[in-house]
Amino acid sequence: MARFGATLFGAAAFVTLLGLIFPHQREVDVLGLDIVMGGATAIALSLVLWGERMPHWAYMLVVALGTALISLAIVSNGERHGGAAGGDEMYYLWVVLYAAYYLGRASTAVQVAFVAACYTVVLAIVNPGDVATSRWLTTVGLVVGTAVVVRLLSERVERLVASLQAAAHTDSLTGLANRLAFEDAYRREVARSARYGTHFALLLADLDRLKEINDRYGHAAGDEAICAVASVLRRTLRAADFAARIGGDEFAVLLPSSDAVGAKLLGDRIAHSLCERGPDELPLGLSYGIAIPGGDGEAMDDLMRSADDALYASKNAARAGRARPQSRQPAPAQPA
User: Fold this and answer.
1) By the 8 A CB rule, do 13 and 37 touch?
2) CA-to-CA distance for 203 and 251, rounded, in angstroms?
3) pLDDT category, 17, cuts 50, 70, 90?
4) Which residues pair with 249 in a beta bridge?
5) Which entry of 127, 225, 322, 324 is 20 to 30 Å from 15 by CA?
6) Tally of CA atoms within 13 A in the half-sphere of 185 that contains its CB
């Protein structure tokens, strides 16, 4: 935004300089064009040096100054002293294109109204005669039409970019965040934790026997099972928690301001919810592992590895429990 604005004002200063260097009509107000050139140069340099730190209202002011400089250029082109019209009104389009692309609907409307007001004053000073109304309508109509088209195109591009960003960070099957979004969320949570001295927990959850479900009931049933986990996560998690599907049947959950005890309670609640599905639904099981920054590491890979180890330890323990034979009471002795 700053670089583009600097380029426009720099180009305006250069064009004005060329107009002064090359032959021009005698009626031109050289002092006025010198002011235009100097003002455009100063604004271009300001945008280069400080543009990236300027607030939104400052850009509104910059665009308004651009309109004022163009108006001064029209007044100084010699027409008010009997010279021919220079057609400098077209430079209003530079201002409107910039405002419509960068500043939003309300700001663009304000700039268009300012252009119309400035051009009204310009025509009053220049006094072109009977064509004044026609020139005003033509110029302002062109400015309004350009602003509307560019603003609508800009909003369409913004929607497309937002849609692409959402798609790049969303798991298409469950609608949860994907691994890329989870990595971003983890970095934000680490920064927040360091800034405020808080803590958080990482929970990894894995759907049990997904391959068995796929082999027995088909992949559609497997997808349904994965979506069931996502649905339980949405119902169970707090607003501050962040859940993502990071693999085929693996989910990761960030739990701000939570410890191992709170994370375990949540994991049990999620697993219990999956076990209590309706009679017409496939029974599902869930294994999970927990890691806490500090003892389990600080980097995301270290924490994920610790949680993954805990998850598979839990899964293996559950398998061993199911495979262990049940003990029997000895049969009562028969009387002799």
Assistant:
1) yes
2) 8
3) very high
4) none
5) 127
6) 23
Res. 334: pLDDT tops 50? no
Q: What share of the chain is helix, strand, coil (3-state, %, to 5)?
A: 70, 10, 25
Query: 6 CB contacts (<8 Å, ≥6 apart)?
Result: 44, 45, 47, 48, 51
Q: Which of 294, 178, 183, 275 is nearest to 228 (CA)?
A: 275
Q: How many CA atoms lie within 13 A of 33 on its CB side?
A: 20
User: What is the four-CA torsion angle of 276, 280, 283, 286, rounded to 10 degrees?
Assistant: -60
Which residues, including other chains, have CB under 8 Å from residue 186's CB and lie 6 or more apart?
Answer: 254, 300
pLDDT per residue as tens digits for the range 135-164: 999 999 999 999 999 999 999 999 999 888
Query: What does the alpha-carbon distance between residue 79 and residue 90 come to, in Å, rounded to a whole number?
Result: 16
R_g over Cα of the chain: 34
Active site residues: 249
> In 10 A of CB 299, how many CB atoms?
11
Alpha carbon distance 120, 157 (integer Å): 33
Q: Check if the beta carbon of residue 292 is closer than 8 Å to that of residue 193.
A: no
Separation between Cα atoms, residue 271 and residue 315, nearest integer Å: 12
pLDDT at 38: 96
Q: First and final CA of the chain: distance in angstroms?
A: 102
Query: Residue 320's pLDDT band (boundaries 50, 70, 90)?
Result: low
Instruction: Give dist(CA 276, CA 97) in Å, integer.
Output: 59
Q: Which residues of 196-211 are buried (b: 16+ CB within 10 A; e: fewer)?
A: eeeebbbbbbbbbebe
Could you tell me if 180 and 169 are in contact, meaning their C-beta atoms sit under 8 angstroms apart?
yes
